Amino acid sequence: MMAYFAHADLDAFYASVEQFDHPEYRGKPVIVGGLPGDRRSVVSTASYEARQYGVHSAMPIAQAVKLCPRGVYLRGNMGRYREKSREIMDIFADFSPTVQQLSIDEAFLDITGTEALFGPPRELAEKLKSKVFRDTGLTVSVGLASNKYIAKIASGISKPDGLYVIEPGSEEKFMRGLPAAKIWGAGSKTQELFRKHGLASCDDIYRLSPETLHSIFGQAFGTFLYRAVRGESAELFDDGRGSHSMSAERTFEYDLYDDFAIETELFNICQTVMWRLLNSRLQSRTISVKIRYADFSTEIARETFAEPVCTLNVLYDRVSALFRRKHRKGKGVRLIGAGLMNLENVSARQGELFNGEGEKERRLEEMILEINRKYPDAALRRGRSLLADE
Q1: Which of 16, 60, 296, 376 has the most CB atoms within 10 Å of its CB?
Q2: Catalytic-role residue among 106, 171, 263, 265
Q3: Is the pTM of this model over 0.70?
């Protein structure tokens, strides 16, 4: 049986939740991330109405105000966004026994063998989109393909509220027709290398030999590119295998003061660490937090718990609590990092860790463990900016 995957991506998620909760914002340019006058805040999400003015994610709020002075500016509410995300992930679980949540607003669904229940993949996707909108008031763009890498790219082709299907056998043709900028996993430094070597399209990369790709991009990333432009399953992930710790951090162009901007960054960093953990088949009970301030003073803290981290929500709750205890309010934050230490093999009794957890968390962890068994190389890095919300 041929595998088939859907990548579901909520459209302008934070801004869409605000427009759903506040009907007076609908049809207006909504910018989530900070208020006018917040000199150190950045845009987390811009509604599609705001994007018409040139406002985009990771842009300083001050610049957004210049472009869209009449926009609706909000600091945001991560608690509400997480609540809405859980509603949507529950809907996804109705359509697939295997849901891999990549972030607060996107997930992969393994829809292999679901035809008897929901019809062909396109029909399933249409039903899923309809149910999400009917039950939550939000729109979701879906990409369908025979592997997750292609499904991820396909979901961004016809946003917002889009549905794009890559038929089996057409993966290579689809990828070769894309510009190099569309390669998921190729960040800004890689894009610079593309330009330096005159690689404007995926077809340009396709024409290079594996040896040439390895010489330009290194063994691992060269192999990734070789597979990606051929439409093959092409996951690239630094999983920290063989290390006693794994972490992620981000240095900001502007010092952060706003609580929501800091909270958003912390959540995104945690999701990167969590998918590294899942891919490695390791576990950890010790979290760490790193904070560097505008004056370059740095604070590092760690905490060990009785039970290991089991889900993204658990990791975020623990990391954010430690961050709040150590953060010196009023000081601009230049860098945030989070990690897991003292990594160890997954315990045979890990399934017992959910006795005190809610049903949703237990069900989520069961799905995650099944993903690890079924797809040991399936953990993915987000190719877009950590702040971006397409």
Answers
A1: 16
A2: 106
A3: no
